[in-house]
Amino acid sequence: MKRDVPHILLINPWIHDFAAYDFWAKPLGLLTLAALLRSHGLSVSYIDCLDRFHPQAPSSDSTARWGRGPYLKTPIPKPHGLEDVQRRFCRYGIKPRWLAKDLGQMPVPDLILVTSLMTYWYGGVQETIAMLRDIFPQTTIILGGIYASLCSEHARKNAGADDIVAGAADEAVFDIVARHTGLRVTARFDPQNLDTYPYPAFDLQSCVNYVPLLTSRGCPFKCAYCASHFLSPIRLWRSPESVIEEIKFWKQTHQIRDFVLYDDAFLVNAQQHALPLLEKIVRADLGLRFHTPNAVHIRSLKAETAQLLFDAGFKTLRLGLETAEFERREDIDRKVTQKDFKQAARYLKTAGFTGDQVGAYLLMGLPGQELSTVERSIQTVQAAEIKPIIAYYSPIPHTALWPAALKTSRYDLAADPIFTNNSIMPCQSESFNWETVSALKELASGSYPQ
Ligand code: B12
């Protein structure tokens, strides 16, 4: 049947991994594209293979842990090359038969857009696309997102999509629609001005229990382990007015209390961006909670900023410390000194934050990193009365550390992104042992819940 307006189906695929949890993870990029398409008159629908609130899923408490919660999981065979890992490997998300039924009940879409997150989750992307292909053999399937951007060649050969799109697709999505459906619409927003965007289409989810906010794009730093400069090369800011309007919108329409900042560099240039926004949030006195699972920059944490964060209702604050080996951090980034860290910890405490609200990420498993240095970092963080949180290093193509990762890894990282999985610590030498890793995790968890 030919429709007047093309119908676009957007899909958040399954995850295949040793571990995954909804730590406030939503496909913000895909839902931004959905909102853009919808606001330009196209018909869109959305299926989230990770939906914790699927009508057939066992009931999940939407208010638990400020919106976070476990995904449904089903054990599946381990991927080739990782058979000897002593952990269960699972598909995270809804049951395949629920997805098949949901897809079977919808009209045949004119175009399918699939997103992707972590590079090493591509198995979930493949499985999702295979099912889409089965049910809608005539429909073009396009893959975009982070895996598609970081590992374009691999994705082109292996994902099963008809085409791969790398990078931000806010404008490109209209060309894709024109190419595959014949309908050309004129974009009525300015890709250089985030205030002209519609709000991401979180309302398409079966349950909206928290809302991610992107108040800026990009990051001025180029840390050796991070791909932000590659994925979001242009720094853009929203106005504080536009962000506060969005916050009020979700509170009024969906009674949302938990807001999660996805910015790469929320506190950088705080005078121009974060401070005016935080002042507005404090003044609006909306009784909300804010969280930064994606770390904020320590050097920007001055007394005034710490106080505003506390007064605005930030409940989960994560700091990007990465290592407390300050004298050696030249190799990975230059973003923080020991003095910056100690000062920030003091400011946060004076502002009213408790030790279990503030966590400092410490990277473990960097190429050539001695595990004993992680122990020292944990102790430094604990001495500052902040919670150390271990983040296992995932080697990422297009980053400065990638060549060193290739050289030190016991896996062939270049051959298969499955080996960039952070749970297997791919850049630790053959001789490291998991007991040491568990002992470090235990030391880090100390008296605080993670
Ligand atoms: C927010 C964020 C998170 C959130 C959750 C994000 C989520 N949705 O699940 C949190 C804080 C929970 C998180 C956690 C982690 N993250 Co993270 N995260 C990010 C971050 C900062 C932004 C992603 C984002 O939302 N961007 C904004 C939107 C607008 O952009 P987008 O999604 O890319 O979408 C655009 C395009 O990709 C494209 N697009 C998207 N989909 C589609 C589909 C089609 C068809 C098309 C055409 C286009 C298209 O158009 C969109 C609009 O322009 C990125 C860095 C970055 N700058 O991308 C890291 C990043 C993705 N994370 C990374 C890592 C390492 C992690 C952790 C493993 C960290 C750790 N060691 O503990 C954890 C584990 C995650 C997990 N769930 O298990 C790495 C990826 C590593 C990898 N190997 O893939 C990144 C790249 C950061 C880095 N270090 O370089 N993360």
For this entry, give a set of tags.
450 residues, alpha/beta, Rossmann fold, TIM Barrel, 2 domains, 6-stranded parallel β-sheet, 5-stranded parallel β-sheet, 14 helices, 16 strands, 32% helix, 16% strand, binds cobalamin
Brief account:
With 450 residues, the chain is α/β, with parallel strands linked by helices. Helix content is 32%, strand content 16%.
Mind explaining what this structure looks like?
This protein has 450 residues and is α/β, with parallel strands linked by helices. The protein folds into two domains: 7-181, Rossmann fold; 210-445, TIM Barrel. The protein is 32% helix and 16% strand. It contains 14 helices and 16 strands. The protein has helices spanning 28-39, 96-104, 122-135, 146-150, 152-158, 172-181, 228-231, 240-254, 274-284, 303-312, 338-351, 371-383, 402-408, 434-445; strands at 7-12, 15-17, 43-48, 73-75, 90-92, 111-114, 140-143, 163-164, 211-213, 216-217, 236-237, 258-261, 289-296, 314-322, 358-364, 387-392. The model has no long low-confidence stretch (mean pLDDT 93). The structure holds cobalamin. The site of cobalamin (B12) has 47 residues, from helix 1, strand 6, strand 7, helix 4 and helix 6. Cobalamin is lined by residues 20, 23-30, 32-33, 113-115, 117-120, 142-146, 149-150, 165, 168-170, 173, 176, 214, 226-228, 231-232, 262, 264, 293-294, 391-392, 394, 396, 420, 422.
